[in-house]
Design goal:
Two copies of one chain form a homodimer. Chain A is of the alpha+beta class and 474 residues long. Chain A is built from 17 helices and 18 strands. In chain A, the strands form five sheets. Chain A has a five-stranded antiparallel sheet. In chain A, strands 1-2-4-3 form a four-stranded mixed sheet. The radius of gyration of chain A is 23 Å and the shape is globular. The interface between A and B is large, with 80 and 80 residues.
Chain lengths: 474, 474
């Protein structure tokens, strides 16, 4: 069990890190002690901001001597409170944001070594200067850091083609709970020297190691894209279309988002300067994007495939973006769903996954199950169909006081969603992680075999429980 | 520490598994107690051959009660003694070969669920009946089993495009050291519920869990292939060619093997019915293969790219296979290297990897380092250039008694190779694993941080050390 840091430890940490790297000033720490969603409010004995891997290792060694707890943090933009300390005021916040250098880039090998604190959007720009692209992006790109993205195995809208962070990490450097530095940055395509620590640290939410740098895979910068907004009858049909496009267009197909008409409707009602791409409306839409080299003639290829899908009555209607501005407008409709929904009132949000094949079934069946238990309740699914990952939002019945209804029934309704997901072999956290938000839920719903194994790994690597206590599993 | 099984435990195991699943007959066990290379000879208290996951779990629970050690085994075709019990006669050999069913195949989703004991070649045939292909193959495909391939994170000749086993495993079922069953078969593309146990079991050599089944990704059956034999000046040029072909041909490029002329020469001298594809000879060759749909016109695409490479003097000469028989003949040259080399006398074999970029440098510099320490010594590198993985073989000086020379100097010469690999950030085991063969080498040469972490994971998941003791790190 961790213990509160002694005044001597705090002095030593201050001496080690200097004024730039140490603060116990409440005002200076405040922005970093509340999570992005404003749901968790923590306290910290101090905020530590080391500038080098050596400093991180020295911090960990000092803290390990006293069993002091460390809570690593990147951009503080996580969705599950994974980077917020508890309210005891005895934990130490370890910010990686000062470690924000691009250490190296290899254009030939299409690899970059980048420190944990670099912000994703800055990394995008840095590699673009070399004619390359890092093919992972998400809403929080202006604040999310590389270390946080690795530690949460982040996803986003390009997972369909390029995978989650796990697939893009060629190497990792991390400080382990004993203060040693694991140097796994070398980008080995084959390495069978036992357990893959790199993969283990990916998605471990800072509970097993402090990621200080990563070697990341890059792809050539996309010179062209083609975007289509497609009207269709059901998620089932959307999956058929996805399979067809995947077989025909393969590596060019980078995005395939599923959107129900009710989501589009909310966007059109609440978000200024939006308009429906298709008239009349369809029950469901797919937003499809291809990316590739300049000479790929993506528009023509996409048009050919969609014309064939239309001919065989798989899809109801389609419009291709004529230029970048139209592409952006289509994506703005997709990206505004959460904002529009908030304007419609409170909702329960579930970030869940099931095997891709079963996603249409989940989307079709879950609203009925919910309505049987909670008459009038409304469910909306949208998102990454090709990843088997939807954002499944549940709204209170119309006409009731939404906040009061959610306070009374929200937890039970969410349980029903999660149990359905687990019945289908799915996950209660597709891309946001566990953190504080789902820690108790995981302990309640996951299989005893899996929970015991997770706890075994944690105990084996961090026996004193000093790294991010209270998150994920302990 | 494991203890010898009591007579009562053996009785209970026999009662559980019946005659088909239990044997303590020395003759029946003999073939499974010596490894494929004939290097390790073990003994076992009994051989257990459960037929179901439930039986495996029951075996593990019974053994855990007495701290009896289990050594899992698939096709017994590993290269590092990882599936051979020690010589004490107190370990139990756990064969998965009776669990050999294809449980399910989903043509739409291109996924198959297959039990651990199914032989790779049988699996190839089973999915081919569905118009699909499992894109991992290797020399031992007639005996290697799915469980062993998962547990060793097997590689092979198609890793360049499709990755090692790790990339092809969509789900895993395994029995953990406490006898619980981890059901991770659901093929979730996104799942952020903490540590990725599936990835942890991949390559763990049976030291953390007994893999009982896997859900594997498939690709459409290849309807066409194009094969070229290319003469060029150096590994450096070969890497440039690989980069060029990869950019131009992308997903079609499935094989890129590097072969020095001395390897080809040995094949031509020792293997009947072989002939050199090019005349006059070149210092190095690349064997390149594309695979794809029938209408891809692969030959034309490959010819265009290679003609351009020839025009720019990147390559010296090239011959394309005119038909399947010629393709097979080219691959036979590659696949016969080990056999030809054995006919030339004993050699030290090293299965090593470095970052792809550094491979030409390793190949260029290592022979000089060796010769400086051991005058007259000869080194040969061949294999998977694009994976940064060569088979680096070292032959004694000409004219000496090879066996005696190796006995005197072999270990020191190998140390020199491994230290060079580690200097370049590489791995002392690229694809064969650690097993017994490299256990002490790993403990000697790997970084203390990494070793401590490996030991922590092992202790956390298998505190009594019952799964495959004496292998990898234990």
């Amino acid at each position: 069990m961790p213990r509160p840091p002694s005044p001597q430890l705090l002095d030593r940490l201050q001496a080690l890190l200097g004024d730039k790297g140490f603060s116990d000033d409440a005002d200076a720490m405040a922005p970093w002690l509340t999570d992005w969603r404003g749901k968790y409010h923590g306290r910290a004995a101090a905020m530590l901001s080391p500038a080098t891997t050596g400093e991180v290792a020295a911090v960990v060694r000092l803290c390990a001597q006293e069993d002091a707890a460390l809570v690593p943090q990147g951009g503080n933009s996580g969705m599950v409170g994974g980077a917020t300390p508890d309210s005891s005021g005895t934990q130490l916040l370890l910010s990686l944001r000062r470690m924000n250098r691009l250490r190296a880039i290899d254009e030939q090998a299409q690899l970059a070594v980048v420190e944990a604190g670099m912000i994703l959007e800055n990394f995008h720009h840095a590699v673009l200067d070399h004619g390359l692209r890092f093919p992972l992006t998400l809403g929080g790109k202006g604040s999310a850091t590389i270390g946080g993205l690795v530690s949460t195995n982040a996803g986003g809208t390009q997972v369909l083609r390029h995978g989650t962070m796990r697939a893009l990490v060629a190497g990792v450097e991390a400080v382990l709970p004993d203060g040693s530095v694991f140097d796994g940055l070398a980008p080995l395509k084959k390495d069978n020297r036992g357990y893959d620590l790199k993969q283990l640290l990916c998605g471990a939410e800072g509970t097993l190691g402090i990621v200080t740098a990563a070697c990341l895979r890059l792809v050539p910068a996309a010179a062209a894209r083609a975007t289509a907004w497609i009207g269709l009858a059901s998620p089932d049909v959307a999956l058929q279309l996805l399979r067809r496009l995947d077989a025909a267009l393969g590596p060019s197909l980078e995005g395939f988002e599923l959107i129900p008409h009710r989501c589009l409707d909310a966007v059109l009602r609440h978000i200024p300067q939006t308009r429906a791409p298709l008239d009349p409306p369809h029950p469901w839409y797919a937003l499809v994007e291809l990316a590739g080299e300049a000479d790929d003639d993506l528009d023509a290829r996409l048009e050919t495939e969609l014309a064939a899908a239309f001919e065989s009555a798989l899809i109801g209607d389609v419009v291709l973006a004529k230029n970048e501005a139209e592409s952006d407008a289509f994506w703005r409709l997709r990206d505004s769903i959460s904002e529009a929904e908030r304007a419609d009132g409170p909702a329960l949000q579930h970030d869940v996954s099931v095997p891709v094949d079963l996603m249409p079934r989940f989307i079709a069946e879950n609203p009925g199950r919910l309505a049987a238990a909670f008459p009038g309740i409304r469910a909306l699914s949208f998102g990454h169909l090709g990843d088997g990952n939807v954002h499944h939002h549940v709204q209170p019945p119309e006409g009731v006081d939404g906040a009061a209804w959610l306070a009374a029934h929200g937890e039970d309704a969410s349980r029903l969603v999660y149990r359905h997901v687990l019945e289908l072999g799915g996950s209660i956290s597709a891309e946001h992680g566990i953190g504080q938000l789902k820690r108790d839920l995981l302990a309640e719903l996951d299989s005893p075999a899996r929970l015991a194994a997770l706890r075994g790994v944690k105990a084996g690597l961090d026996p004193a429980g000093l790294f991010n206590p209270g998150k994920l599993i302990g």
